[in-house]
C-alpha cells in the first residue's frame, strides 16, 4: 500500500505550436531537412516551409506573413532593417561552366568583364552568360563580390529563377557560364558541368570558412525582433551541433 502512495513521474503535455519558415530557393532543401529534424526531436512544434526568392522571403517576414526566414542575404529595401538576424553558416557563390569551355580558374576581373558585357569570348568560344533573376540573394552576393556596385550589362545574359535551373541550363548549353549558391552543390554535379575556381581558390567548405574564397557570405536566420519561446529554441538548435551537422552536408560536391 505504501508503494502505491509513492510519487509518480510527472508527464508534461506540451502545447502544439506551428510556425511559418520562409527560405530562399538556394536554401530550400536545407530548410526542409532542418524542419523535419527539428519536428522529429520536438514533435509538438510544426515548421511549415515556404520557398521564395530572397527579396520576397524578406518581405514576407517583415509583413508578418512568416515567423522565421533562412536567407543568404537580407534585402533592406524589402524591410530587412527591422529584423533580428544571426549568421548560422558560411556559404558562397560557385561559378559553374559547361565542360566545353576550357577554363578552370578565373580572376574576379574576368568575371567583371564577362558580366559587364565586355568579355564575350574565351579561347575562341563565344560565351553564353547565365545569371539569376532580380531579388535573388545569390545574385546579390555575386554582384557584391564581382560588380561592386555596378549593374550587370551583358545584354544577352540568360536570366533564370533558381540555382537548379542554372545548373541544368549550363549542363545543356555549350560555352555557358553561370553561378549558383554553394548550398546546391551537395552530391554530384550534372554531367557536362564543372566548378570554376576564383582567384585560384575553389569554393570548398574550408576555403569558405577561412575566408580564402572571395565570393562568400553568411547564411542568416532572421525573425522580426529577437526570438522568444519556441522560436528562440529553434534558433539555438540550428546553431547547436545537431543543426550544424545538417548544415555541414550542404556545399560540397
**Discrete helix count:** 8
Large-scale geometry: elongated
Helix content: 25-40%
CATH fold label of the largest domain? D-Maltodextrin-Binding Protein, domain 2
Largest sheet: 10 strands, mixed
Mind telling me the CATH superfamily name of the largest domain? Periplasmic binding protein-like II
Q: Any idea what the CATH architecture of the largest domain is?
A: 3-Layer(aba) Sandwich
Computed structural class: alpha/beta
How many domains would you count in the coordinates? 2
Descriptive report:
The protein has eight helices and twelve strands. By secondary structure, the chain is of the alpha/beta class. It folds into two domains: 18-90 and 217-247, Periplasmic binding protein-like II (D-Maltodextrin-Binding Protein, domain 2); 91-216, 3-Layer(aba) Sandwich (D-Maltodextrin-Binding Protein, domain 2), CATH 3.40.190.10. Strands 1, 2, 3, 4, 5, 8, 9, 10, 11 and 12 form a ten-stranded mixed beta sheet that branches. The chain has a two-stranded antiparallel ribbon with strand order 6-7. The longest helix is centred in the first third of the chain and has 14 residues, at 28-41. The radius of gyration is 21 Å and the shape is elongated. The termini are far apart. 40% of the residues are buried. The model has no long low-confidence stretch (mean pLDDT 90).
List keywords for this structure.
single chain, 253 residues, alpha/beta, D-Maltodextrin-Binding Protein, domain 2, 2 domains, ten-stranded mixed beta sheet, 27% strand
Amino acid at each position: 500500500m505504501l508503494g502505491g502512495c509513492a510519487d509518480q513521474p510527472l508527464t508534461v503535455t506540451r502545447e502544439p505550436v506551428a510556425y511559418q519558415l520562409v527560405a530562399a530557393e538556394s536554401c530550400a532543401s536545407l530548410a526542409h531537412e532542418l524542419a523535419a529534424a527539428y519536428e522529429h526531436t520536438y514533435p509538438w512544434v510544426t515548421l511549415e516551409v515556404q520557398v521564395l526568392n530572397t527579396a520576397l522571403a524578406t518581405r514576407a517576414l517583415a509583413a508578418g506573413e512568416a515567423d522565421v526566414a533562412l536567407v543568404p542575404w537580407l534585402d533592406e529595401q524589402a524591410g530587412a532593417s527591422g529584423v533580428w538576424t544571426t549568421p548560422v553558416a558560411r556559404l558562397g557563390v560557385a561559378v559553374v561552366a559547361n565542360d566545353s569551355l576550357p577554363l578552370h580558374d578565373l580572376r574576379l576581373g574576368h568575371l567583371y568583364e564577362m558580366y559587364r558585357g565586355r568579355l564575350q569570348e574565351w579561347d575562341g568560344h563565344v560565351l553564353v552568360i547565365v545569371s539569376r533573376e532580380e531579388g535573388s540573394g545569390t545574385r546579390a552576393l555575386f554582384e557584391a563580390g564581382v560588380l561592386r556596385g555596378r549593374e550587370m550589362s551583358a545584354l544577352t545574359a540568360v536570366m533564370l529563377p533558381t540555382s537548379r535551373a542554372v545548373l541544368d541550363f549550363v549542363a545543356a548549353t555549350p560555352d555557358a557560364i553561370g553561378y549558383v549558391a554553394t548550398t546546391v552543390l551537395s552530391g554530384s554535379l550534372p554531367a557536362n558541368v564543372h566548378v570554376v575556381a576564383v582567384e585560384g581558390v575553389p569554393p570548398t567548405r574550408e576555403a569558405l570558412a577561412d575566408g580564402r574564397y572571395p565570393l562568400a557570405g553568411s547564411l542568416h536566420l532572421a525573425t522580426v525582433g529577437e526570438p522568444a519561446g519556441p522560436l528562440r529554441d529553434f534558433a539555438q538548435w540550428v546553431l547547436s551541433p545537431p543543426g550544424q551537422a545538417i548544415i555541414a552536408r550542404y556545399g560540397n560536391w
